[in-house]
Amino acid sequence: MKVEYTARKYDGDDAFSWAVFRKDHLPKGHRGIVFSDEARPVISGLSRSEASYHKKQLESWAHAK
User: Fold this and answer.
1) Enclosing domain of residue 26
2) What tens digit of pLDDT does each residue of 47-57 get?
3) What string of DSSP letters covers 34-64?
4) Which residues, 6+ apart, have CB-to-CB distance to 2 below 8 Å?
5) DSSP assignment letter at 26
6) Of 3, 22, 27, 30, which residue has the fewest beta carbons closer than 10 angstroms?
7) What is the total count of domains within the chain?
């Protein structure tokens, strides 16, 4: 099984409210801000560029296994 991750806004609208989620933990077709009752992030409290970096790192680690 291929694990995919996605970076989304999480529980807020400030610069450090980005988080990385497992794609299969979000509802299909979900768009917009993810709230705490919808999904649990792998890592949160990130800026947009940090979220992108961690997403790529997690995907490369998951695919290396």
Assistant:
1) 5-64
2) 999 999 999 99
3) BPTTT---SEEEE-HHHHHHHHHHHHHHHHH
4) 62, 63
5) S
6) 27
7) 1
